[in-house]
Amino acid sequence: MIALPKMMNDLNRDTTMNKFMLLLTSVSLATSVYAENNVPLSLKVYNADSNSFHVNSTLVYGDSEAAVIDAGFSKADALRIAANVLDSGKELTTIFISQADPDYYFGAETLKKLFPEAKIIATPAVKKVIEEKMAKKIAYWGPKMGDNAPNNLVTPSAYQKLSFTVDGHAIEIKGTTGLLAHRPYLWIPSQQAIVGDIAVFGDLHVWTADVQGEAQWNAWLQQLAEMKKLSPKIVVPGHMKKDTKLDAGNLDYTSTYLTTFDKVKKNSPDSKMLINKMNTLYPNAQFPLSLNIGAKVHKGEMKW
Fold it and tell me: What are the residue boundaries of the Metallo-beta-lactamase domain, all occurrences included (predicted)?
């Protein structure tokens, strides 16, 4: 028979060991959860409505710093983007303009007034196209936008490097060479995220009017293929329908749309048939203006 004191000692020892193992398990679980949530940078996307062509602006922020990727179209868009910055409580150090279209840079004036210390930058190719088209763009859009239009357009500085940082974490600038050098995109390695590119659309009719000719069209498809090779977990389209999932499916969507558009275009005698066929194939896609203009341009019925 086991002596009672010895039995009690054994029970106490087992109980203590069980508590210790439970504590280790708890610590292990807590560390696992912390590791999953301890991402160096966070993203917050502002998705404008149809009045601003469903364009996106992304806030990238770390412990103390933030960057805005694309400044929005209207003053109202820029103010909503600014609200995201203020809500983050971080210092806005960089405003990166990824594309030369007005819906990507018109809002820079408003952001500059609110965050005067932030640097507004773009690649040399993007800056060049902005400067070439800026006067015509504001002459066209200014009267249409009224008080929502910028008063004094801000031109980004030409940024020569291929990366910048937020709290020491790299944001890489890709797609800066070739036929579409004026349509770069950003790659955030720590997040495995692609951000800021007019080449990618989410559940909308893709804007095709700016890319004409087989060489540019193939370069666009190639860029999408290069993006896919990065194996991104997050893909923020340049334009998207509200609540579009921010994943690599947007690359497949855009690539398939372009391939389909090209095939339908070759089998359509005019833009009317092209538009009807694409609407049938993509009944839930928004942004009809994109399809209407793109179809007319690609069928030679409109100059762009």
Answer: 54-239
Please indicate, yes or no, if residue 185 is contained in any of the structural domains: yes
Q: What sections of the chain are H helices per DSSP? A: 4-37, 75-88, 102-105, 108-114, 124-145, 214-229, 249-266, 271-281, 288-298
3-57 confidence digits (pLDDT tens): 434 434 443 444 444 433 433 333 333 322 222 345 699 999 999 999 999 999 9
Which tokens in the block code for residue 219?
Answer: 């370069």
Please give the model's pTM, rounded to 2 decimal places.
0.87
For residue range 147-173, what is the model confidence (pLDDT) as tens digits? 999 999 999 999 999 999 999 999 999
Residue 184, domain extent: 40-198
Q: What are phi and psi of 263, to 5 degrees?
A: -65, -45
Kindly state whether residues 74 and 189 are assigned to the same domain.
Answer: yes
Q: What is the CATH number of the domain that holds 47?
A: 3.60.15.10
For residues 254 and 151, membership in a common domain is answered with no
Number of domains comprising the chain: 2
DSSP summary character for residue 247: S
**DSSP-assigned letter for residue 89:** T
Mark whether 61 and 191 lie in a shared domain.
yes
CB 264 within 8 A of CB 277: yes
* Nearest residue to 86 (alpha-carbon basis) of 113, 57, 66: 66
Q: Using one digit for the tens of pLDDT, what is the confidence trace for 167-191?
A: 999 999 999 999 999 999 999 999 9
Q: Among residues 198, 226, 260, which one ends one of the domains?
A: 198
